[in-house]
């Protein structure tokens, strides 16, 4: 991920989506305080830094070392599942991009993110969609589950928040990617280590074409909700009465 997240179509698309959302919800005065849960190798945290003071929460010591290699030092080491080590009502935006699916207690993290978010602030959540698409890709990335939109919304329903938007996305590539993953699931040899297709080498032209398709679809999310896709985006807003 550290090597390819600046060039690979999927990661570039997520950055495009994040910029689009942040530009729609945050002031550009540089005074925001933001938090990235599961900061990984740092591309999201670097982007958040353009909007103000950006903090990262990460459990992996390997990832923390890579974050520091990028010059990102505002990092707390925590699993975040039960407790985020920040005070109430601190952040203008909290991002949690493809993290919930790794946790046993995903509801606990949702609750904690709402707690540390400022009244009126936003929480941006993405998760992999469609449980029937479970494949060696999920095994390789240590996922606990894939979600339907209703399953994710049910986890949010009991919390003190407003769902500003919830939609599937990555629909244009749904059929080919679903077909590849289904086919690979029948071809995996017993005892073979699971591999993610995130790291499948692609010709430069194909990588560019996939990114262009992905970005074109993501632009539509400004005005549309999509009824199916490989992933789910949910934007949660903390009420002003917090």
Task: Give the SSE map.
Layout: H1 9-25, E1 32-37, H2 43-48, E2 52-58, H3 61-69, E3 75-77, E4 91-97, H4 106-116, E5 117-128, H5 136-140, H6 149-157, E6 162-169, H7 174-187, H8 204-220, E7 231-237
Describe the structure.
It is a single chain. This protein is of the alpha/beta class. The chain has a single domain, classed as Rossmann fold, CATH 3.40.50.150. Helix content is 36%, strand content 21%. α1 runs parallel beside α8. The longest helix has 17 residues. The model has no long low-confidence stretch (mean pLDDT 89).
Overview in brief:
The chain has helices at about 10-25, 45-50, 60-70, 105-115, 135-140, 150-155, 175-185, 205-220, and strands at about 30-35, 50-60, 75, 90-95, 115-130, 160-170, 230-235. The protein is an alpha/beta fold and about 240 residues long.
Index terms:
single chain; 242 residues; alpha/beta; Rossmann fold; 7-stranded mixed beta sheet; globular
Mean pLDDT: 89
Q: Note the main sheet.
A: 7 strands, mixed
Order of helices and strands: HEHEHEEHEHHEHHE
> How much helix, percentage-wise, in residues?
25-40%
Sheet with the most strands: spatial strand order: 3-2-1-4-5-7-6
Q: Please give the domain count.
A: 1
Main structural class: alpha/beta
Radius of gyration: 17 Å
């Amino acid at each position: 991920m550290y090597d390819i997240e600046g060039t690979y179509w999927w990661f570039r698309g997520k950055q495009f989506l994040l910029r689009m959302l942040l530009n729609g919800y945050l002031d550009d005065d540089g005074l925001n305080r933001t938090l990235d849960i599961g900061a990984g190798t740092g591309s999201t945290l670097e982007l958040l830094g353009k909007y103000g003071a950006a903090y990262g929460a990460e459990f992996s010591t390997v990832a923390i070392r890579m974050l520091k290699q990028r010059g990102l030092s505002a990092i707390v080491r925590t699993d975040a599942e039960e407790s985020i080590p920040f005070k109430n009502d601190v952040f203008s935006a909290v991002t949690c991009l493809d993290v919930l699916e790794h946790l046993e207690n995903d509801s606990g993290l949702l609750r904690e993110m709402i707690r540390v978010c400022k009244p009126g602030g936003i929480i941006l959540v993405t998760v992999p969609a469609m449980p029937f698409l479970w494949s060696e890709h999920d095994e390789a990335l240590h996922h606990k589950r894939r979600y339907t939109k209703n399953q994710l919304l049910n986890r949010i329903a009991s919390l003190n928040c407003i769902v500003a938007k919830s939609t599937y996305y990555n629909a244009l590539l749904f059929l080919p990617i679903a077909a590849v993953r289904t086919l690979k699931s029948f071809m995996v040899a017993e005892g073979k280590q699971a591999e993610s297709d995130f790291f499948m080498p692609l010709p430069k032209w194909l990588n560019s074409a996939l990114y262009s398709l992905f970005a074109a679809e993501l632009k539509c999310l400004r005005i549309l909700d999509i009824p199916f896709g490989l992933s789910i985006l949910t934007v949660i807003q903390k009420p002003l009465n917090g």
